[in-house]
Amino acid sequence: MSGRTAGQLGPVELEVILGTVRSAELEIEAAVERTSRSPMIRDQHDYRVALFDARGRKLTGRSYSALVEPVFEYFGDDEIDPGDVFFWNDPYNSSGGIGHVPDLCTTIPIFHGERLIGFSQVFGHHDDVGGSVPGSLPVHATDMWAEGLVVPPIKLYERGVVNSAAFKIIERNSRLPEHLKGDIDAEIGAARLGSKRVCELAERYGADALEAAFDAIIDNCAATLRRELLPKIADGVYHWQDYIENDGVDEPRLHALRLTMTKTPEKIILDFTGTDPEAKGPINWPIDYADGKFARKWMAPVLRSLADTPERAAEIDMNEGVLDVIEMKFPEKGTLVTPNFGKPTGMRFFILLRSLGVFAACLSKATGGRMPADHETIRIWGLHGGTTGSDFFLFREVLGGGGPGRPWADGSDVVHVVPNSRNLPAEFSETRYPVLIEKLALATDSCGAGLRRGGCGYDKQVRVLDDSMLLSNADRALLNTYGVNGGLHGATYGINVVDDQGAELPVAGMADNIPVTAGSVVHIVTTGGGGWGDPLEREAEWVRYDVECGLVSVEAAAAEYGVVVTNEGDAPVLDDSATNALRTKMRGQRDTPQFFDRGPYFEDIKRSNGVTWPDDWQDPDDHVVSAKAGGVHKAAS
Amino acid sequence: MSLRVAIDTGGTFTDVVAIDDVSGAHYAIKTPSTPSDPSIGLVEGLNKATKAAKLKSSDVGQLLHGSTVATNAVLEHKFDGLGLLVTEGFRHIIEIARQSVPDGYGNSFFWVKPKRLVPLHLVREVPGRMTFKGEEITPLDEDAVVKAVGALNDKGVRCVGVCLMHGYANDAHERRVGEIIAEHFPDLFVSLSSVVLPEYREYERAMTTLIDVMVKPYCQTYLQRAAAKVSSNGKGPSLLIMQSNGGVVSDQTAAERPVTMLLSGPAAGVLGAAHMAQLAGYEDILTLDVGGTSTDVSLIEKLTPHVTSHSLVENYPVKTPMLDIATVGTGGGSLAWVDDYGGLKVGPQSGGADPGPICYGRGGRQPAVTDAAVVLGRLPGALVGGEIVLDVDAARAAYQALGSRFDMSAEEAAAGVFEIAAANQVHGIRQVTVHRGRDPANYALIAFGGAGGMFAADVADFLDIAIVISPPDPGNLSAFGLHVSDIKRDYIRTLVRQRSVADTNEIDAAWRDIEDRGRDEIAAEGVAPDKVILTRSGDLRYVGEGHEIEVSVPPGTVGDDAVEFLWKDFHRVHHDTFGFQYEGEQDVELVNLRVQALGSIHRPKVAEIEKGTDAIPTGQRPVYWRGDGWSDCPIYNRPDLGAGSTLVGPAVVEEYGSTVVVPAGWSLTVDAFGNLILEKRS
């Protein structure tokens, strides 16, 4: 009945296959969320899914994924069979696809009869895989073995038969074995659902047509990049660097991630040569495997910001086709991105985000400043307390930060890089934990000033009702998010405790087990996004409105935007003539606007000659602000 | 007082189904909709119904009505004049929302946060604070309320949503705010979150409250006007309005909490589908309601339509219970086009009703799915009983042009567009079923709406579904569905209690409390109090889970038994929904208590049709099948088919307003009630 046009790939087959691959990706995601057990996966959505062709090329386009290469590396062609389930979490034996050990990766081959036609894969961040602390993310780890059980690529199922010895060992090494087992079962079930969809396509249209469609899907991605995005980037060589400020082990210092981007008419070459040495603490990221395939696919989506509109950006699928236009080069072993075997990697999400930031900054230099500024989107804070099992509680939140200012819009407020991640409602938190949420707001003046300002971070005040311990796990507590093309830096992350006597205790970004007494108020402010473009050019009325909404103070309106606003009655009033005068004065007094603005902590270090770069680089922050950067859209007010 | 009239207002047509309680006669009528004032079409429909039944308007005892007034207000973004009052410290509540960025990883770089329902300068804080137990920590500052509302009023706000912290646990502050506004600003529309949705999670409650107050002026104006028109001198039929939950209430009740009217239209179709499927002997069903611009799909299990409390309307969360209906952006009017990279696409753009497809000859220029059906011979040369003559040549020329870009003939291109359109509907059904862990292959597909029968077998083929049902008069199923509704209201109260420390008496008492309210309010709709059916349920989860699932208590189970049932059955439901459970291992947490109060109303008898003999085609025409090419296909006239008639595909069955396609490999049987049952032959 089906497969009436078997064998031939036409536009109809291609469209249905493309739509089914997209739909299957959503289906696999829904199945993961429905059946997995770790809150990190179910509620924080920290998992990724993908479909691949028989050569391990990624077909799905919503987000990055791990790789299939470890299957090929560890198993011969004659060792990949129907019913197999491949499994690993080893950061040093996953071709760079898995960054830290809590990410357990499940991969199943898809067969149409005897013919291998693809792979289906799910990996998720599990609650606990052993190691020195509950949650398997020790801040002070100095090697990989402290972070949990490490599994190199193995077969968890062989031709449908479970490898129960391996399963038992894995379960035995988790503090939450039931969760772990459930999560793995959920991943396998979801991956099988995806494989079923691919099989149905092969049934309907034939395996040859399916493979031809896969080629077309991948070619189409490369063609889209070449046609819509690459022409917007000027050919040339660009340098930039950004930093992790604290590795959790040594005293805070700058750990530099350095990138040289070479743009030719056909390609982008990303070279991490010059990156600082590997760290003692868990901020390393081993990606120098399989020609950097993982990191290339991870970083490529940054290019989408160059699409004509944000709506178009969201449509562009990022699959294996990106490898056609992005190459990657690495320094010798022993750097942050090429760590030696066994270095800890648990907090690698800081450098993961920095990699996007340095790529975006190089692109900003190469596009006359058309790229978004910087945003920092992952940090965890929490309280735990109680002594016995029954009164133990852990109140842990993943809070977003302000999005970047960009040519087409102000940054979005309190966003999180993980899609569909959610904050905790105040009414839920108060019901569950001994806290009273006294303020849940956007932080005034956290947004980096700009023609298009950054988004705001959180301003959260939590009264603690029982004696508790505080934890914080955050970068960008010292260094600001950067502003670009004349935009200013956004505010840093901050956390402090005010006790019931009014005494204030500042807390470091990376901290654990800080005692907090009942009655104290914990005050958390998360990062604001960097600003984009000259704040003195921002529509004065918009600045006034931001003041009315409590997002910008009267003082900052004057100091950063040159806008004079007076508070009279209910709403602030704009003083046009005073604003014009102030802006004229500020333009006259200031130096040339900086292309990048990294904020006071960085400037202090730079003034004391603490900022260095390779001998063959100029100061990577030197770049001329583009007066009329392409395509500023005047959004409706 | 023998005539009951059901009127479903759609975008293009207002559908009417009237049933004479005495004779059992059914009358189905269509009249043009009147979007600028839908009450005109409503009255016109009512008049046509009485005329058809040869009765007087005073003979109409009951008028059941599905309306799109609430939905349209939201779809048209009529958000001006909306203000919000919140607890001090929470002014940015709807700006922050849940910090979520939709879709892909890293979209936060370029994604632009959509404009909020209420701009920040129209959000005001008032001091006053409750705890989650409903204890007052800080008294309400009444002067601040007057000042805040006064400021909003000065800025042109006409509708005020009030959402105070833990208002669901103790509504004293919100009630007082309501009184103050009524006293000082009597012209303002107001909705209190403790009335609209007494459930915890402040952002979702605030949004639901805002949608409620936002649609209030439109719904109240419309319902008052409609009620006045259908009754003269205060005498007239009782007016019952369909709600999103699949139940009806009086027009006054609906106007008080109009957020419940958002799915007033599509909900009735699902009810009608469930009823006809039951008569046909099926209880697990997927509904496929194919309209001009989109297709609605929903899941019915054991004859009960699935209900959700997690709906998004225009991406705004609305947490009142609604039938779980998903919309796919492909319908009969969806357009075929070629993207910049040479890809062949179908929808989501649509020609709509005006100008409509090319074959309507009203100025449509881009080929629509309906044009493809004409090219393929699936549709006849004229529609709706010959009233609309179709321009087959123009449709064919358009597909010729489209096909030439891909080296395909006109019919190959048209069949391809049909295949893509069916696949798009398949993706929509997959998204509905996968969230429940269901395999569509285990369901019967019931297809309705004007174009449902044209697609159904193709969609079923993709999904391995073996049974397709086409109910009689599929274009009017929504209006029919109004006749098989009950008076129904839903009640919720948040009561977060962990099983290990819960007080059974407290839970039962809270349930009884909301049951009393339900009994009173359904009785107020004219149902005898002892005929009100109360159903208890609760939302539960394992401690530590981020979302809860609903567990229903069997009717008649009350007191300690009901609470015990909840604790126990939760594990089963959890396993059924998610595939695992932790009975005996993890503590369970109650989150919400729910009560559904129901008063059943008259059920019409669906007449059996006459027995038929062998189906005899009225003619034949060439029909093109993807892969198999053209074949001469028998055409049947649906009214000619009697109960028990059978035929085998390929065939096309036509009637006034709709067409059912039976591909090769499928057989068709007519059941006693006039349902066409298509069965895939293995």
How does the overall form of chain A come out from the CA principal axes? globular
Number of helices of chain A: 14
What structural class do you assign from the helix and strand content of chain B?
alpha+beta
Largest protein interface, residues of each chain? A-B, 96 and 78 residues
**How much helical structure, as a percent, in the residues of chain B?**
25-40%
End-to-end Cα distance of chain B: 51 Å
The total of beta strands of chain B comes to 37
Features:
heterodimer; A: alpha+beta; six-stranded antiparallel beta sheet; 14 helices; disordered N terminus; B: Nucleotidyltransferase, domain 5; Rossmann fold; ten-stranded mixed beta sheet; nine-stranded mixed beta sheet; 37 strands; 31% helix; 28% strand; globular
Describe this structure in words.
The complex is a heterodimer of chains A (637) and B (682). Chain A starts with 10 loop residues before the first helix and ends in a 30-residue tail after the last helix. In chain A, the strands form six sheets. Chain A has a six-stranded antiparallel beta sheet with strand order 1-4-3-2-5-6. In chain A, strands 13-14-20-17-18 form a five-stranded antiparallel beta sheet, with helices on one face. Helix content of chain A is 27%, strand content 21%. Chain A has helices spanning 11-35, 39-42, 69-74, 164-172, 177-205, 207-229, 293-299, 310-315, 349-366, 426-432, 540-548, 554-561, 576-589, 600-607; strands at residues 47-53, 85-88, 103-112, 115-125, 154-158, 161-162, 236-244, 255-263, 268-271, 326-329, 380-385, 393-398, 435-442, 458-464, 468-473, 483-484, 494-498, 504-507, 510-516, 521-525, 565-568, 571-574, 596-597. In chain A, helix 1 (11-35) packs antiparallel against helix 5 (177-205), helix 4 (164-172) crosses helix 5 and helix 5 (177-205) crosses helix 6 (207-229). Mean pLDDT of chain A is 92; it is low at 1-5 and 629-637. Chain A is built from 14 helices and 23 strands. Chain B is 31% helix and 28% strand. The two termini of chain B are 51 Å apart. In chain B, strands 3-2-1-4-11-12-27-30-28-29 form a ten-stranded mixed beta sheet, with helices on both faces. In chain B, strands 13, 14, 15, 20, 25, 26, 33, 36 and 37 form a nine-stranded mixed beta sheet that branches. Chain B folds into five domains: 3-73 and 231-261, ATPase, nucleotide binding domain (Nucleotidyltransferase, domain 5, 2-Layer Sandwich), CATH 3.30.420; 78-219, Rossmann fold (3-Layer(aba) Sandwich); 265-329 and 409-485 and 602-682, no CATH class; 334-408, no CATH class; 487-599, Dna Ligase, domain 1 (2-Layer Sandwich). Chain B is α+β, with helices and mostly antiparallel strands and 682 residues long. Classes of the chains: A alpha+beta (637), B alpha+beta (682). At the A-B interface, helix 1, helix 5, helix 6, helix 8 and helix 10 of A face helix 3, helix 7, strand 22 and helix 12 of B.
